[in-house]
């Protein structure tokens, strides 16, 4: 089987453990940044507003309250904004490490499949959008 589609390359990247490593690194960087305070504050504001708009909600089972609050939070692009504003994604060292990992994985695939050279093409874009 020749691995040539972006989805197949993303799957190989995930199997290698690099995807999880990058995800943990991004999360840790975010959790230790100044941006976490504003993020948490916005979440708390949304939850308070939802609870204030429906006083009966506080007397419902915890699962119901949780589901309602999560639904309310999901209505806003809070997480998407936090990701879009992540400075680590635009740092040269971070992207260079991704590129190096991709090249290593593509080389491993090439050796394993004994095929011709594999083109990375839009792999980085595919990886970041999966």
Verbal overview:
- Helix content is 71%, strand content 0%.
- The relative contact order is 0.16.
- About 5% of the residues have low confidence.
Please tally the helical runs, counting DSSP H or I stretches of 4 or more residues.
7
User: What oligomeric state is this?
Assistant: single chain
Rg over C-alpha atoms, rounded to the nearest angstrom: 20 Å
In percent, how much strand structure appears in the residues? under 5%
Compute the average pLDDT: 83
The level of helicity is over 70%
Structural class given helices, strands, pairing?
mainly alpha
Overall number of strands: 0
C-alpha geometry: elongated
- The termini sit apart by 22 Å
How many strands, which pairing sense, and closed or not: the largest β-sheet? none
- Uncertain spans, ≥5 residues at pLDDT below 50? 117-122
Reading the helices and strands in chain order gives HHHHHHH
Put the structure in a nutshell:
The chain is 71% helix and 0% strand.
Question: Keywords, please?
Answer:
mainly alpha; 7 helices; 130 residues
Outline the fold blueprint:
Layout: H1 6-15, H2 18-31, H3 35-53, H4 62-74, H5 78-84, H6 92-113, H7 123-129
Helix pairs in contact: 3-4
């Amino acid at each position: 089987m020749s691995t040539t589609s972006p989805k197949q390359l993303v799957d190989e990247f995930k199997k290698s453990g690099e995807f999880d490593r990058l995800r943990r690194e991004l999360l840790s960087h975010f959790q230790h940044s100044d941006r976490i305070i504003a993020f948490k504050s916005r979440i708390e504001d949304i939850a308070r507003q939802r609870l204030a708009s429906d006083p009966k909600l506080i007397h419902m089972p915890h699962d119901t309250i949780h589901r309602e609050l999560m639904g309310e939070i999901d209505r806003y692009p809070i997480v998407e904004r936090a990701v879009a504003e992540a400075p680590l994604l635009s740092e040269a060292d971070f992207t260079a490490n991704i590129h190096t990992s991709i090249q290593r994985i593509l080389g491993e695939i090439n050796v394993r499949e004994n095929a011709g050279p594999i083109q990375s093409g839009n792999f980085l874009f595919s990886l970041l959008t999966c």
